[in-house]
Design a protein that fits this description.
Keywords: Acyltransferase, Repeat, Transferase. One of its GO terms (molecular function) is galactoside O-acetyltransferase activity. By secondary structure, the chain is of the alpha/beta class. It is about 20% helix and about 30% strand. The strands form 4 sheets. It has a 7-stranded mixed beta sheet, with no helix packed on it. Strands 2-5-8-13-16 form a 5-stranded parallel beta sheet, with no helix packed on it. A hairpin with a 4-residue loop joins strand 19 and strand 20.
Length: about 180
């Protein structure tokens, strides 16, 4: 029988109240609390699925599981980031992410009111290309890919894919010009 974790990992509807997922979130929270208290890079390498050379994360940092976060080399995640990693979050090399950014992979049923009431959810991955800059307070929604060398203006809400080498801003985030 397929587990709730397997459902989560494949983007199917799953119950986040599953004991295995609850235990994994609690384990991740212990590491997050340790990191936020100590700023130890060793803790982040235990928490993340992978962390490239020269990359660093500033506290306060929050995530659900940690192991679904993959951050490339020489990338920076600023203060107060929230990464809801119910699906994979891939951050490329040389990425700068401003303070209070949110990368949100979780989805909830929209039209099936009963499923939402019963707390079913699914998730879709987020991919951020190489040499991307996300300004402060940017929110990236589930299923979004941001292309290499793109810049996303502060406070933008990214609800759909952004191509490479563009400046995009707003809510919803829209391409303003090529770079």
């Amino acid at each position: 029988m397929i587990t709730e974790k397997q459902k989560m990992m494949t983007g199917e509807l799953y119950k986040d109240s599953d004991p295995e997922l609850v235990a994994e979130r609690l384990s991740a929270q212990r590491l997050v609390d340790e990191f936020n208290a100590t700023r130890s890079g060793d803790v982040i390498t235990k928490l993340f699925g992978s962390l490239g050379e020269g990359s660093w994360v500033m506290p306060r940092f929050q995530c659900d599981y940690g192991y679904q976060i993959h951050m490339g080399s020489n990338s920076f995640l600023n203060y107060d980031a929230i990464l809801m990693d119910c699906a994979t979050i891939t951050i490329g090399d040389d990425v700068s992410i401003g303070p209070r950014a949110q990368l949100l992979t979780a989805l909830h049923p929209i039209e099936d009111h009963e499923a939402r009431r019963q707390r079913w959810e699914s998730a879709a991955p987020i991919t951020i290309g190489n040499n991307v800059w996300l300004g402060g307070g940017v929110i990236v929604c589930a299923g979004v890919t941001i292309g290499d060398n793109a810049v996303i203006g502060a406070g933008s809400v990214v609800t759909r894919d952004i191509p490479p080498r563009v400046l995009a801003v707003g809510n919803p985030c829209k391409v303003i010009r090529e770079l």
